[in-house]
Known about the structure:
Pfam families: Fn3-like, Glyco_hydro_3, Glyco_hydro_3_C. The protein is of the alpha/beta class. The protein folds into four domains: 3-282, Glycoside hydrolase, family 3, N-terminal domain (TIM Barrel), CATH 3.20.20.300; 307-517, Rossmann fold; 547-664, Sandwich (Immunoglobulin-like); 708-805, no CATH class. It contains 23 helices and 24 strands. Helix 15 links the parallel strand 12 and strand 13 (443-448). The longest helix has 27 residues, at 779-805. The two termini are 13 Å apart.
Amino acid sequence: MELEELSVLEKAAMLSGASEWDSRGNERAGIPSFVMSDGPHGVRRQLGAGDHLGLGQSKPATCFPTAGTVANSWDPALAEEMGEALGKEAHDLDVNVLLGPGLNIKRNPLCGRNFEYYSEDPQVAGHMAAGLVKGIQSNGISACPKHFAVNSQELRRQASNSVIDERTMREIYLTAFEITVREAHPWTIMTSYNEVNGVYAHENKHLLQEILRDEWGFDGMVVSDWGGSNSAVDAVKAGGSLEMPSPGFTSVRELVGAVQAGTLAEADLNARAAEVAKIARLTKTEGVGRDDLLKDDIAAAHHAVARHVAENSSVLLKNVDGTLPLPAGVNVAVVGDMAKVARFQGSGSSKVNATREENLLDELTRTEGVNVAGYAQGYDRQGARNQGLIDEAVALAGKADVVVAVVGLDERSESEGLDRSTMAIPQVQNDMVDALVATGKPVVIVLIAGSPVELPWYDGVSAILYIGLSGQAGASATANALTGKVNPSGHLAETWPIQYADAPNSGWYPAIGRDAIYREGPFVGYRYYTTAGVPVRFPFGYGLSYSSFSYADLKVDDNGVEFTVTNDSDVPGATVAQLYVRGPQGGVLRPDRELKGFAKVQLDAHESKTVRIDFDRYTFRHFDTESNAWHVESGEWTLMVGANVEDILLTATHEVKGDVDPKPADPALGSYLTGKVKEVTDGEMTALFGHWVTAPGKPVTFGANDPISSWVDSKGFLARTIAKTLTKREAKVREKTGQPDLNTLFILNMPPRAMSKMTQGMIDSAMVQAIVKIANRHTFRGIGSFIAGFFRNQSANKRTEKELNNE
């Protein structure tokens, strides 16, 4: 039977999930149900009914380094190798769609989910994600890049409106997705929770139809984030294919009713059903051995892949007088709780039940040529002051030649659903490092964090190796880097400010109200620091090596640049050559320089290689809002090649024949012209956005799209008590366990309308309106409406299910 021959009811049923992780198939049309699973850095195949936050038990799988760490490799081929292993495990665990990679732009260092995202730059994010997608889909498994789009904070993430000018959105926040779609052709895309300029992402025709499909040529399935759908009818009209998880049959009835009323074209329903059916047929996994544990040989091989990825992603941030690699026979004091109890991934939906775990203490102890003088905990994991732990670490340092101290962010700091409150690591760790530096012994820091942290002791330590969140094999990879078996070759994929106050949007992030206004425009990350002249701790693209490299002989033609990179040392190693461009003088508003290409270059001792970086559709373009089109300005462009955004080693000019002459920037942009976005006035922001932008105050009344957390301002006692109780409970659990209370955070961030999407059909839209009455002080009327609505909804669900079964 052809899909078009199915009834409207049957096709509507295909557009929402059957359970937490399964789609609805259709036996009459030969369309199987398929399984989706979280998995940006490891397959989280849950047992039983499962949950969306990663709280339930899941099958063992390899935990690879997170995206924020893999990005530091600047090696799309390495991401593809990791993707191949991920796709293999997804296939063997009977998963059809792997929900990753995450490639939202890192707008601010404190976003709680930064560890899941690649970079502050769309070139790095896009090409790294494309590599991962290619690897996953080589197994016949669909990758699912997320979260589309303009999703940059966890606070109010289901009830936030990202307000952004069109040019910044296109050039910064969408380009990474564009590169991934055009280069890797993912079969599925996941939308974000937030609104974009007032329209929910999953029902945003501008994003899903005009840009994703019409402009980029995407022909796959668009799935909502879990609970991220708002109106099922508007989503289908706009290009949203599948609503997850199961909302019961409420959405099905809404779609059927809209077709019958003539407010939804059946052609749109057919198109969305065809997109879902395509994934079902593309990703069949019959014959898979659905074992709870990976086979031993596969587990071992993939552990080795995870180690290889971690080895190529660690970044040497400091190395005074060749402290590293550690010399043979050295006596090492190993200090820090995380040296013994490893932290190698973040919290939330991406958390993987690792097949194996390592810790640095054990790995250094078994490393030939390293004498471990002892271990000291050094600090309390939860941040409690304990001078005895510091004294123990200092005493141990006296018995060693060098101290290896493992410090960084704890489990509470980086999680889905919760933004960081500070860029600092716990003070007890800083106190320990200061005490160790005071001993006069060389102190080597192994730094664990999914995003930048402040380093108040930077000047005092001898070396810093940043390993990020390095996956289950991160400890052995770190031991290899410390001892020189591996030469660190990672480069930072994001800028590290000296202090949080230096970040361009530190004054308005995260937005606590409904509107998250992207006031800084295009000046994100290095685009801000280089244009405004703000000093940083480590620039974008920075990374040291045990080797030394030189660049020479830059040549430019109409298609790209060529230059020579030489390893001037006796140690084989790799570096990342980076191409930046600066637009013609007198042209449109631009940052001082922008990354437009890169190459990971592996060189033997004293070897030279000619490196070529080609121009592409992204190199010289800008988006013009007046013509609603991409253009290239003619004129003299400056091309810069370097080892990071500040260390420019080769420069040339290049005459570009574009399709428009340089257009002077509008003087009304004021402070934007120098990148000094902290000084931008409301009038200058209006010039950037093209319209007046202002954030509303606290709501007088609450709607279906205001989060539960906002009820703290409700005049209704019950609603206010619910919000305050949940807030206190989350803080208490986090303090007691050292882990964020993800369930409570999800509820606090959730607007009532999401209840109709997350309760397997137990709550419908009429019951949501009853809940809103409670928030608006009509407590008893709301409770009565809710109870009556519950019974009506139950009867309607039974009728719909019976009708479907009789088709």
